[in-house]
Input
Amino acid sequence: MQKRSILHMLDPMPNNSPFDINMAMDAGFEVLMPYSNVKLDSVYRLTQDTIFSRSPAGIKRTGIFIGGRDLGLAMDMLEASHQAMVPPFEVSVFADPSGAFTTAAALVACVEQALKIQHGKELKDCRVLVFGGTGPVGIATGIIASLAGADTALVDHLLLDSAMDVAKAFNRRFGCTLKGECARTEEDKATLIKEVDIIFCAAKAGIQVLSSEVLKAARNLKVVGDVNAVPPLGIEGIKRTDAGAPFANAVNAQGTVAVGALTVGDVKYQLQHKMLQLMLTTDKPVYLDFREAFNKARDILTEKK
Output
């Protein structure tokens, strides 16, 4: 009799995400075991309890999912879990804190595709700003864009030091080249966006970050992407269903295009589903984070063409 598939869901927060639980069930896991308030130093023990309680056949139908909100902690937990494996007792592990890795991967991949189609350019040719850049999705977006070669800055709405500290921390961790910027006022925003090619908006839902008036300063803008689906949207003039459509508030002659939240969300949903299914179907254990997510998001968009 085939063993039931189990996903152990480790989360340092008081509650596991209902979104992740629903996604895991829909991907085919039969048993979900949520763990809240998980400390980093507990991950090793929990992982070994997971692997040594099942036969090698059962291990193939077992996985670990790491949630939370802190990207650095999620990566530390993934590494701690990896270190606890004792092959052939080894299971797949997937880190996606706050859905940030899959959301950011979908956002960057959708914008990258629009950039290629409309302008024939690559991310490495572009200057990029990430508004909401010190939150989970913003940080992950910045890391992915930077590692793809873009000249990328994370923008904080209050403190320059906050943005710079985050940039330095993740540059050390992943070898990217993030910068930090601050935009407290409309004038600050207008100054920052003057020469950029791409704007990502990953700010909190329901907050307009860039108004049509501010956007008049963006004379070189090629693509805008926004993950906010709650009115008012983060970038004025964008539509949630935009998928490389002309951007209503563009002021340059280059044909600025937009990628909206529902377009990003559709890819994010497919992406998380595929990565969870991979854990159930792979013969060799996999360790999944934003890097694998970005590769698979690109694949999803290629398949859609």
